[in-house]
Amino acid sequence: MFTENDTDIFTECAERMPEFNDKIGRITGHHEVYKIADERIASFGFRDVQHLIINQPEGQVNTGKMMSALLGKARATGVEIFNGIGIRSLEDSSNGVLMETDNEWTIRARRVLVAVNGFARKLFPDLDLYPARNQVLITKPVPGLKVEGCFHYDKGYYYFRNIDGRILLGGGRNLDFETEKTLEFGSNPLIRSALAKLLHEVICPGQAAEIDHWWTGILGLGPVKKPIIQRVSPNVVVSVRLSGMGVAIGTLVGQEGAELVNI
Ligand SMILES: Cc1cc2nc3c(=O)[nH]c(=O)nc-3n(C[C@H](O)[C@H](O)[C@H](O)COP(=O)(O)OP(=O)(O)OC[C@H]3O[C@@H](n4cnc5c(N)ncnc54)[C@H](O)[C@@H]3O)c2cc1C
């Protein structure tokens, strides 16, 4: 989505669309993945939006259902799941990996795959990644909501979608990069007010879009937009730094880590 302040970035995106369509078409088999869709702006009820580029094969994932399916699959194969146990440190030796927990007791395992994404620096300070907090809101159901689909705005720093008649909106980290490089969940008033403004003035102008709930999520980012899947000691592998793409690539990153831990 491009507003009237985004003319330069829109021009650049539009000019490079044939190149990107060619590259991604060779992977997806779809001959026109990206397409200008300005004729759809009015149907979504936006204000001050000048251009839209649609990614035609992109879809929406219900992450609640995704996690439920994952847990179901794991349990069906006999995996035991223990939540709420923080690992403070890992010590790898010939006897396996000794993990110290937040509860003062320890767990020993033959091998360990660490998949804590942005939190990994706490356990492995040398890994090249940093946490990036994102502010997120969800509205109450908006009567007559017209928005439908997943939308990216301002070079991808903002993201919003419809879900169950509500708007889910997050991002704005670029307004305060340094403060948001944190592992602490919590509010950032500057970013929250920018998100509320975007919601009320651009996404749902003149509509009764009441904010129901705020929360924060922590991303794992680094100098390159690529996950780290590597052995950090003989019996410990990490699958981290999902680079803001963990819903899309998390299963593969987990699988590749699991394969490495088994070698
Ligand atoms: C606003 C927002 C929008 C996003 N949009 C998209 C999108 O459109 N598409 C997409 O693909 N991705 C998106 N993402 C990114 C995606 O949510 C993440 O990449 C994904 O959740 C990473 O999954 P994960 O399981 O690796 O890490 P997490 O979901 O961060 O889970 C890590 C878990 O490890 C636990 N943990 C941390 N430290 C320890 C410890 N020491 N001991 C024990 N447990 C620990 C944490 O409590 C947490 O439960 C978005 C993220 C945000 C915040």
Would you summarize the structure shown here?
With 263 residues, this protein is of the alpha+beta class. It is 29% helix and 30% strand. A 5-stranded antiparallel β-sheet has the order 10-11-12-9-13, with helices on one face.
Structural class: alpha+beta
Q: Give the termini distance in whole angstroms.
A: 45 Å
Overall outline: globular
Mean pLDDT: 96
Q: What ligand molecules are bound, each kind once? A: flavin-adenine dinucleotide
What is the CATH topology classification name of the largest domain? FAD/NAD(P)-binding domain
Strand content: 25-35%
Tally of separate helices: 6
Task: Determine the CATH superfamily of the largest domain.
Answer: FAD/NAD(P)-binding domain
Radius of gyration: 21 Å
Give a verbal description of the structure.
With 263 residues, this protein is of the alpha+beta class. It has 3 domains: 1-58, no CATH class; 63-129 and 223-261, FAD/NAD(P)-binding domain, CATH 3.50.50; 130-221, D-Amino Acid Oxidase, subunit A, domain 2 (D-Amino Acid Oxidase, Chain A, domain 2). Helix content is 29%, strand content 30%. The protein contains 6 helices and 15 strands. It has helices at residues 7-28, 41-44, 63-76, 120-123, 189-203, 246-261; strands at 2-3, 34-36, 49-51, 53-55, 87-93, 96-101, 106-109, 112-114, 130-139, 150-153, 158-163, 166-171, 211-221, 228-233, 236-240. It has a 5-stranded antiparallel sheet with strand order 10-11-12-9-13, covered by helices on one side. The chain has a 3-stranded antiparallel sheet with strand order 5-6-7, with no helix packed on it. It has a 3-stranded mixed sheet with strand order 8-15-14, covered by helices on one side. The chain starts with a strand and ends with a helix. The mean pLDDT is 96. The structure holds flavin-adenine dinucleotide. Flavin-adenine dinucleotide is lined by residues 86-87, 115-119, 123, 134, 136, 159, 170, 217-219, 242, 244-248, 250.
